[in-house]
Amino acid sequence: MIPDVDNDSIVYLNGEYVRLGDAHISVLDRGFIFGDGIYEVVPAYRGKPFRMEGHVSRLLRSLDTIGLETGWSRDQWERLILDMLARESRGRDVMLYLQVTRGVAKRDHPFPAGVRPTIFCMVAPFARVGEVRETGLRTISLADIRWHRCDIKSVSLLGNVLAKQAAVEAGVDDVIQFRDGLLSEASSANVWVVRQGMLLAPVRDHHILEGIRYGLLEELAQARGIPFESRPISRDEVAGADELMLTSATKEIVPILSHDGRPVGTGQPGPVYRALRAAYDEAIAAL
Ligand code: PDD
To answer: Do residue 25 and residue 140 come from a single domain?
Structure first.
């Protein structure tokens, strides 16, 4: 039994629907041994997936980038997601977690031949962000020590775990990571900067995971007439930002109101955040 989870919920594992408490994989799974796999987190509201096509595109891209062949089509991934939501969401707001590893094989670094990938999917209830919409998050700066392929949604998340733990130990909510003096991202979210009315985000390269909310925010900003630019952002620009915010599947969009112990802008949620937050809520309501 795993504490704090619903062991009776039904999960998908390698072609079968089983109780979470009965779902087992081998200790030789390459996900366990090497962190050799990728994952997705898809939010669903009232049981309906939000931006599923984008998540499946990123899943296919991650699989392709690490040379993990499943033989599954886009359609099959979408059917798995919809099927899991139909079975387990019960019309609630949930997050769907999907993981694919290179399967079970003798411990040896090269890709194994003829091995079936491990495919796992579960759904867990998720509470939408509440008062933090107004109270905001506190962050600190941190050196980004992760590898150079942060664009792959890899299950090898040690760097992200250490970053988040650094925030916990500093008594704040998250970190803002910098590599060579330039903004990358938070421990598990993208970071947005507002300066003089302009919404800025780091370039979509291999130093960040391009969130599904990256493209979404671009669209929402355009619809609301907020100018947007994707470009390298320095540490000084973050320190002097009018607004800072972060986005992820589970956090949606939240303001950062204190960074490195100083208030961000006025220390209150700013106008660009408010406009994007309202647009995000509208997109969910329209599902
Ligand atoms: N994390 N950057 C990193 C390192 C992330 O782990 C995430 C998401 C994002 C935002 O991506 P998206 O908008 O697609 O959620 C950016 C998920 C939620 C997680 O690991 O739980």
So the answer is: no
Cα 75 from Cα 56, distance rounded (Å): 9
Asked if 65 and 196 sit in the same domain, the reply is no
Does residue 175 sit in the same domain as residue 35?
no
- Dig out the tokens for 16 from the structure: 């079968």
Q: Whose CA is nearest to atom 5 of ligand 1?
A: 188
Let me know whether 148 and 73 are in one domain: no
Same-domain pairing of 117 and 137: no
Taking each helix axis from N to C end, the angle separating 212-223 and 52-65, rounded to the nearest 10 degrees, works out to 140
Distance between Cα 92 and ligand 1 center (Å)? 21
Mutate-to-test residue for ligand 1 from 99, 128, 158, 188, highest number of ligand atoms within 8 A of CB: 188
Instruction: Round to whole Å and give the CA distance between 173 and 217.
Output: 22
Pick from 86, 84, 70: nearest CA to 122: 84
Q: Is the pTM of this model over 0.70?
A: yes
Quote the tokens at residue 236.
């000084």
Residue pLDDT, tens place only, 153-178: 999 999 999 999 999 999 999 999 99
CB of 255 closer than 6 A to ligand 1?
Answer: no
Protein residue with least CA distance to atom 2, ligand 1: 189
| Ligand 1 lined by 250 (C-beta under 6 Å) | yes
pLDDT digits (tens, 9 = 90+) for 202-214: 999 999 999 999 9
- Rounded distance between C-alpha atoms, residue 269 and residue 254, angstroms: 9
Q: Residue 63 sits in a domain of what CATH number?
A: 3.30.470.10
Same domain, 35 and 153: no
Number of domains forming the structure of the chain:
2
Q: What is the 29 CA–ligand 1 centroid distance (Å)?
A: 24
Active site residue 164: no
**Residue of minimum CA distance from atom 9 in ligand 1:** 189
Task: Note down the domain range covering 28.
Answer: 10-125
Any idea which residue has 């972060």 for tokens? 246
